[in-house]
Amino acid sequence: MAVEISLEKLLEAGAHFGHQRRRWNPKMQQFLFGMKEGIFVFDLVQTQKCLELALNEVTKAAAEDKIILLVGTKKQAKEKVAEVGKATGFPYVDERWLGGTLTNFSQMRSTVKNLENLRKRRLDANKIGFTKKEKLLLDRKIEKFDKSFGGIIKQEQLPDLLFIIDAGREKGAVAEAKRLNIPVIAVVDSNTDPSFIDFPIPMNDDAKKAVGYVLDLFVEAVEEAKTAPKKATTKAAPKAKTKTKTKTKEK
């Protein structure tokens, strides 16, 4: 059973509000219903259809145990992105996107390993005999690293799919994903070019309630994959061997 997407909840959350005309991107025309008081209004029926396609991809990826990287660093999304990442077990980026997170993955993993080592050192600080000042400096260093890499510390390999809140803001993440042929699902507002997004979700990306609703649907899509019955693979029955009669030549 697919995740149920409520038009009423999208409307209540303000998902239909776009930007003013001076900030719009003409490539978003297909997703817009019209204008109201100088502000573009999204066609929420289209938004609903796009959300359905995107969430189907999430369910499919989760069912196949693929890695989905959540990205959302704006204030309206970052707290919820971290919450959803922890709840689903998927890696997430809720602070500034660091260049090379995907395209220089080996270096990024090396930095993450450094964070893990720092945490181990902090746990053994009393045994090692660190002074109070040394502990404080170590805590500050861990806090700095954790802020940038805490959400991806358990990510051992490149993601199979990106789920982005505000594709316009997260251009770096989109560009790196495209370079590595990693498909992208992204919330796109009326001022964003959707051309580079595989599964665009056209809606207001500035409304905290709307963003929260989409991320709640993401969680439902992941849970849908976990509860769905696994398809049993039936092996074809082996063909019965037929005995061939050998003809004897008459002498």
UniProtKB/TrEMBL annotation:
Pfam family, one: Ribosomal_S2
Keywords linked to the UniProt accession: Ribonucleoprotein, Ribosomal protein
GO cellular component, one term: cytosolic small ribosomal subunit
Biased composition (Basic residues): 228-251
InterPro entries per the UniProt record, alphabetical: Ribosomal_uS2 (IPR001865), Ribosomal_uS2_bac/mit/plastid (IPR005706), Ribosomal_uS2_CS (IPR018130), Ribosomal_uS2_flav_dom_sf (IPR023591)
SUPFAM superfamilies per UniProt: Ribosomal protein S2 (SSF52313)
UniProt keyword annotation of Calcium present: no
Biological process annotations from GO: translation
Location of region: Disordered: 226-251
UniProt KW Lipid metabolism keyword: no
Molecular function GO labels: structural constituent of ribosome
Family: Belongs to the universal ribosomal protein uS2 family.
Cross-referenced NCBIfam families: rpsB_bact (TIGR01011)
Protein name, per record: Small ribosomal subunit protein uS2
Organism: Candidatus Woesebacteria bacterium RIFOXYB1_FULL_38_16
